[in-house]
Input
Amino acid sequence: MSETAAPAAPAAPKEKKPNHNEEIKTAIPTLAGTLAATLADPALDRFSEDDQQFMKFHGIYQQDDRDLRKTGKKFIFMIRGRIPGGVLSPKGYLVYDDLATKYGNNTLRITSRQSFQFHGVVKTGLGPLMKKINDSMMDTLAACGDVNRNVMSPPAPVASAQHAQLLADATRVSEALLPKTKAYHSIWVEGVQLNLEDPANKDFVDPLYGRTYLPRKFKVAFALQPVNDVDILTNCLGYIAIEEGGKITGYNLTVGGGQGRAHGNTETYPRIADVIAFVSPEQLIAVSRGVLTVHRDFGDRTDRKHARLKYVLEEKGAAWFRDELEARLGYKLADAKPFKFERQGDTFDWGQALDGSSYLGLYVETGRVKNKDGYKLKTALRAIVEKYQTEVRLTPSQNLILANIKPADKAAITALLAEHGIPVENQANAIRRASMACPSMPTCGLGLAESERYMPTLLTRIEESLATLGLADEEIIIRMTGCPNGCARPYMAEIGFVGKGPGRYQLWLGGNANCTRLNKVWRDLVKDPDIITELQPLFARWKAERIGGTERFGDWVARVLWKEAPAPAPAAVAS
Ligand code: SF4
Output
């Protein structure tokens, strides 16, 4: 190059391409794919890669039984219900129970978002199961996919008028954020493949979501102080009820929470939501749609791992977000009000609702409603719901509540549960009651390590470890997931286990009692036999150093351990 030659212009930054999911949503905005045609073809036991993406919007994941992979893939389906607030009528519960027996693996899995999942459904059972759910006036629409998911609400059954209002508002928001595609009804109710060449389908644009829906999933929850049972700050959009004079006057709006991350990817991290403003009940729907459309318009459509609303908040800031939302609404929002949470989790005993009816909180180990030797939970629940017509409410911590019970029936229900091996008093110790695990193996295709199947035995070992120190009755919130996606919200736990490989877990420590503080990674790769070796000395120090003899484990970790040996930033942990 001569000395007088002009310097070359810097190369323009390469524009990132929309990811493949964006291309297929653009191509088939009804989300119909070729699902009905494949469903009707008896020669096929699975759906194409693209159809698997469309199916998620209909509440269905194609999976394969990972225990059987050595002998070839057996394709199975997971189907998740849309159950706002987790409330099922007696009739609705019995439909779920029937379908799990007939088409699933004879279990029902309570999710961490107050829904039920069927596991192990084969293709021939998929159509009849979906039709029956819809014929029973329930649905699975938008239970997965790049849309708003199941809306959460405090599960306690009308323990106060406030609970009832939250459930009604949660249901309103769930309905308002549903996609309008005709494909769901056409495929699963009528069994008809939409004509994709029909201009009405080809040019379909959803009035809320647009042609390409959201860049990723969107999660909404409602919380009632002082109990943070819905883990409100882990949601994309949260509403914290504000009461004055015993009445809910509105909600603090929280935006930009989320748990999922990817091992070794510094662009991804768990995040707790920002508190943005105060919203009146009348503003709820417009605000919900406004928040959702900010995600729609500003979320990353090039990298699905970086596509959640939380990254928009992190990168643009809460002040920017509020301005953007207010511009869309056309009015200013009031400032958020003070609020306080005292604890998370469920209660496990008899309670009384406003109308005088009774309800019963039941512990469900790792959220799995099933029968096993000496513990026939599935059979017992069916018998109770059939005979006493109890409502069933699913909790965000994967337990359930039987509600609408006549006080006179309490003794008979207690006896019926006992006959099936289920105690009403002392249902589980403090550690188990505060625990959660995601399903992972053998059904989830993303699982790197066991979770649901492993957690109960690990809890036994942790209990034994605590018992040797005289700490057997202490509550520690322990959550486990088989991969970093964080379905059981492990990054809010006092002890979080995140699968990294078979029998290997990242150990995250330092969440708090009301789930308002993120924990931090403490050890990157702990093998199963070493877990207790890691934890036991920490438990011993906690016992010796805890303030007032009552400080929680997570608070001691944050006060002492984090200062002594600052944990590496989560994203800096190598994969
Ligand atoms: Fe699957 Fe990971 Fe979710 Fe567990 S956390 S259910 S392994 S995606």
Observations:
- Residues 161-176 form the longest helix (16 residues).
- The radius of gyration is 24 Å.
- The CA atoms of residues 4 and 488 lie 63 Å apart.
